């Protein structure tokens, strides 16, 4: 099961927040993945199509429980894509027109609504329910082990802008992208994806995103530390080679046996350990010497070369 399917399955099990929130969720489901047909004045039918079983179950449950409308469910299997397609048909019936107005899908005397149903979105529960329904119908969230990305695909710019506003009321910043005749309301940051999942009611999925973020953070720290150590090793290797060259020049010019004990010890240790850092080389001295002390020995060797060159 994809991460998107896991999230939608979790959202389908969110306990209701009351009638107003349930109507908001139904409205979003119908607007995003529903098709409205007209048969003359006051005569309508709706077809809700989805490839996600949890979305189909949620739509059926809410329509039966809060609208008491007749429905027909058809399940088809796509041989090519190896997926099931769920088609919920709400046929023409006496109360459907009034319910469409109630859901904010139809506006009396004006036809189809282009924006979100503000009369339903009177509290935070209804806002969360509407965004939840829109995501279940047209949402996608990437597996957090890859990129952090969540989007809701809808049609109609007014409707898309309305969802951006509702997501903003949930404390999350969403952006809008026009894509092939449709619009994508999308989030790209870990903080926003986690916050929206939490706000819609997918707490388990939000926690999973948080866990992946922590794991990525640990991996990034380890990678930075390893890269720093490799860089230090490369620098030590280069400085060691330079110091060996310096030691060779001192040996030719004045001879190593004529050096003070500290410098002679440094030359011997560096010759035996050409790639060791100055810090580790100092630990081999007797008595141990600091990195600063070892660096000063290198400077003294350089001064000897300059004086005798």
Q: Which features characterize this protein?
A:
309 residues, alpha+beta, Endonuclease I-creI, 2 domains, four-stranded antiparallel β-sheet, 10 strands, rod-shaped
Summarize the structure.
The chain contains 11 helices and 10 strands.
Descriptive notes:
The protein has 309 residues and is of the alpha+beta class. It folds into two domains: 3-201, Roll (Endonuclease I-creI), CATH 3.10.28; 232-308, no CATH class. The protein is built from eleven helices and ten strands. It has helices at residues 3-11, 19-33, 53-67, 96-102, 124-138, 157-169, 190-200, 203-253, 261-272, 278-283, 291-308; strands spanning 34-38, 44-50, 72-78, 83-90, 106-107, 111-112, 139-141, 150-154, 175-179, 182-187. Strands 1-2-4-3 form a four-stranded antiparallel sheet. The chain has a four-stranded antiparallel sheet with strand order 7-8-10-9. A two-stranded antiparallel sheet has the order 5-6. The chain is rod-shaped and about 110 Å long. The model has no long low-confidence stretch (mean pLDDT 88).
How would the blueprint of this fold be written?
Blueprint: H1 3-11, H2 19-33, E1 34-38, E2 44-50, H3 53-67, E3 72-78, E4 83-90, H4 96-102, E5 106-107, E6 111-112, H5 124-138, E7 139-141, E8 150-154, H6 157-169, E9 175-179, E10 182-187, H7 190-200, H8 203-253, H9 261-272, H10 278-283, H11 291-308
- Give the strand line-up of the largest sheet: 1-2-4-3
- Biggest sheet: strands, sense, closure? 4 strands, antiparallel
Share of residues in strands? 15-25%
Question: How many E strands?
Answer: 10
Name of the CATH first level of the largest domain:
Alpha Beta
User: What proportion of the residues is helical, as a percent range?
Assistant: 55-70%
Rg over alpha carbons: 35 Å
Secondary structure category = alpha+beta
Extract low-pLDDT stretches: none
| CATH fold-level topology of the largest domain | Endonuclease I-creI
How many structural domains in the coordinates? 2
Superfamily (CATH H level) name of the largest domain? Homing endonucleases
Quaternary structure type: single chain
What is the averaged pLDDT score?
88
Report the principal-axis shape: rod-shaped
